[in-house]
Amino acid sequence: MVALAATILTLIAVLSSSASSESAAGCFESIISFGDSLADTGNYPLLYGADTPMHFVHPPYGRTFFHRPTGRCSDGRLVIDFIAQSLRLPLVQPYIAGGEGGRSFSKGVNFAVIGATALDFQFYEKIGFPNAYTNVSLGTQLDWFKQFLATIPDGRKFLQKSLVLMGEIGGNDYNHPIIQGSTLEAIQPLVSLVIGYIGSTIEELIKLGAETLLVPGNLPIGCLPIYLTEFKASSSAQDYDPKTGCLNWLNDFAIYHNQLLQNELNRIRQLYSHTLLIYADYYNAALRFYLSPSQFGFSEELILSACCGSGGPYNYNDTALCGIPPASSCDDPASYAGWDGIHFTEAAYRLIAQGLLHGPYTIPHITTACPSLNTDALLYEYS
């Protein structure tokens, strides 16, 4: 009798798990992604070839999960990968791959490209801050998407049933000029242009049929090893947050971008009340592990350092980037939040995804769009 009861309980658990997976998968039939290196799942090397000199197409990128470089700027998965897994959807394939290797876009397609900006390439050339990585912008990605949508028999219905992930996009509109020597005062007028372009792109997608869009804000860029290294010599004690060691003025700039982005989303919500626009608070989802590293499994001493680099106070050197000797990677990427000085480790991306999917860092909460979201999938290891 006890054995029978145990068998029944096991059967119920299996059926419940199956129903949960089917229900979660039923929230959206696919994911459509735009963005930059925070979301690119492989477009960059397909665009520019495997022999590109860019360091992120070489080992040790991809070492933790994929065990090879995939074009992702991390040791493993990105936020978009964890979102796909939580929805019980396949990892989102890069658009440039086309049908190569039997790939299918029926469950999602990714247009994000490493280094991409919101505003176009020619604009930055004109103002003296050319993009050294790519000439792809959000406008390029939108054009690709329209070409793709035209190949779908019922493109509008396909888009209606998709979760549209808008980036992150916009961060490189500031990163490229700052690294090339611009001041924040000089680039601050760009913010309204960047937000306006993101907003107009969202509106265009809505008109094409998009009904649910997840729109990430900018990260706490003042905590990144690239900037901590770049501005170490010119910074004084009051420039740093005593709680985190991050540069206040850069984080304040990210907050400014995020506030304008949320204002723009509120404007669009008033125009398209049938559409669900979800703000993804990447900033605070990430800031919490800088405030309390050990609580999230990171080393207190290494929270501001890159796992993969070539020395210096933050293990970042722009003359020897991760993937290029003499740079090397740490033994345990999971103890670091920073991967290569610019991007995060899989461990950090997982935490950001958990903050969005299971925590308070989406406005409105993502379960508004998907009440049966299987957040336990964040712990599930896909082969």
**Intertermini distance:** 38 Å
The biggest sheet amounts to: 7 strands, mixed
SSE string, helices as H and strands as E: HEHHEEHHHEHHEHHEHEEHE
Radius of gyration based on Cα positions: 21 Å
Average pLDDT score: 90
Question: Strand portion, in percent?
Answer: 5-15%
Strand order of the largest sheet: 2-3-1-4-5-6-9
Judging from the principal axes of the Cα atoms, what is the shape? globular
Number of strands: 9
Structural class: alpha/beta
Secondary-structure blueprint:
Blueprint: H1 2-25, E1 30-34, H2 43-48, H3 79-86, E2 93-94, E3 108-110, H4 121-126, H5 138-149, H6 155-160, E4 162-166, H7 172-179, H8 184-208, E5 212-216, H9 225-230, H10 248-271, E6 276-280, H11 282-291, E7 308-309, E8 328-329, H12 346-357, E9 362-363
Parallel strand pairs: 1-3, 1-4, 2-3, 4-5, 5-6
Antiparallel strand pairs: 6-9, 7-8
Tell me what the structure shows.
By secondary structure, the chain is α/β, with parallel strands linked by helices. It contains twelve helices and nine strands. It has helices at residues 2-25, 43-48, 79-86, 121-126, 138-149, 155-160, 172-179, 184-208, 225-230, 248-271, 282-291, 346-357; strands at 30-34, 93-94, 108-110, 162-166, 212-216, 276-280, 308-309, 328-329, 362-363. Strands 2-3-1-4-5-6-9 form a seven-stranded mixed beta sheet. Helix 11 (282-291) crosses helix 12. It is globular and about 55 Å long. It starts with a helix and ends in a 20-residue tail after the last strand. The model is unreliable at 1-25 and 379-383 (pLDDT under 50).
